Amino acid sequence: MTANATRVLVLNSGSSSLKYQLLDMGDARSDSGSGAARLAVGLVERIGEATSRLAHTPLATGGATRETTGPIADHQAALKAVADELAADGLGLDSPELAAIGHRVVHGGLKFTVPTVIDEAVLKEIERLVPVAPLHNPANIIGIRTARALRPDLPQVAVFDTAFHTTMPESAARYAIDVATADAHRIRRYGFHGTSHAYVSRRTAELLGKAPQDVNVIVLHLGNGASASAVRGGRCVDTSMGLTPLEGLVMGTRSGDIDAAVTFHLKRVAGMSADDIDELLNKKSGLLGLCGDNDMREIRRRIDEGDERAALAFDIYVHRLKKYIGAYTAVLGKVDAVAFTAGVGENAAPVRAAAVAGLEELGMAVDASLNAVRSDEPRLISPEYARVAVAVVPTDEELEIAQQTYALVTA
């Protein structure tokens, strides 16, 4: 790696999509990422379809977003198209300034607790984890193999969604089932959204003017997928998602916590297959199952018009949030801040207000005027008298991946 190699390409490969960002890390060694500059961002979606779309924004030149549509056969073709777009801006993958490529990998099991330089042995272990992440790890592997083929000389780093949660104690990570069965089939609580929880908990500490090791934070990552974490002194001690991303909070299309016997009941009484139940709980439940919409903006619009189903869905969503805030307050013992992040957490003021309403005895409150402010910056929305800070902290998973990747390859 040359001395002026300070750029990191971050790839997030989905089953039919490829998100990417190119960042110049410069001297971005601080926790806040100051000094990092985004040079380009983009998305390839509907890979494998005739209606594939690539949207590329060259931030380095201040140019407008360029969109192209047409068939993109596979991830190899998608990454080649991304490389062509970057080259058109003078940011090609052959640049000596490119230090590494960082890959988001959803499931790292217990083996991968830190960012890891990818080789064949690492790839085989990621493949071994496919049974516990069948929707995500295969797509991540395709992205890695494609990128390695294009730049075999360049360090490629895997940053795992599960890694931040590997600090959970066994009392939080284990399910109360037969130990031999659990160990034989790798059944335990792994947690997800780890890069977001790591970034947001650290940024929340900075917002309070404290070091991460001196702060206890409850992080609420609320998007279409949603998860909560209890972070003590910069280390995760509990999180809401488990073996898969299904457990925990009510989500856009996922049920979250549910009595496991519901699955047996649906099989026996409704005659549903395992695949039918899997699709029900992951794709047809949550807010969508409750009211027919999984967009919080649409749900709030319907509530304003007096829609009772939408109102009930919202109340169930908030009730689950309150349960986790209360539970994680008990787990942590002392809470310095509650941080809302991701699409719903950052933009839905009514969700934040409702989640904290009535928790004054826990030291939590929201200032209505501060909560109504829209901003892309981390900010406090609690009144000065509140014992526990309530914050809105925009997440930046790509920056977190870039930071971890750059720190590893320059160490």
Overall description:
This protein has 411 residues and is α/β, with parallel strands linked by helices. It is 37% helix and 19% strand. The protein has helices spanning 75-88, 120-128, 137-150, 170-173, 179-184, 194-207, 261-269, 274-283, 286-291, 296-304, 308-332, 342-347, 349-356, 368-371, 397-410, and strands at 7-13, 18-24, 37-45, 53-57, 66-69, 98-105, 116-117, 156-160, 216-222, 226-232, 235-239, 337-341, 379-380, 389-392. The protein has an eight-stranded mixed sheet, sandwiched between helices. Strands 11-10-9-12-14-13 form a six-stranded mixed sheet, with helices on both faces. The model is unreliable at 28-33 (pLDDT under 50).
Give the tags.
globular; 19% strand; alpha/beta
Task: Please estimate the helix content.
Answer: 25-40%
End-to-end separation: 12 Å
Proportion in β-strands: 15-25%
| Quantity of strands, as a count | 14
- Low-confidence parts lasting 5 or more residues at pLDDT below 50? 28-33
The largest sheet has its strands arranged as 5-4-3-2-1-6-8-7
Mean pLDDT comes to 93
**Class by alpha and beta content:** alpha/beta
Task: State Rg.
Answer: 21 Å
Task: Please work out how many helical segments DSSP would assign.
Answer: 15
Q: Tell me the series of helices and strands, N- to C-terminal.
A: EEEEEHEEHHEHHHEEEHHHHHEHHHEEH
**Largest β sheet strand count, sense and barrel closure:** 8 strands, mixed
Cα shape: globular
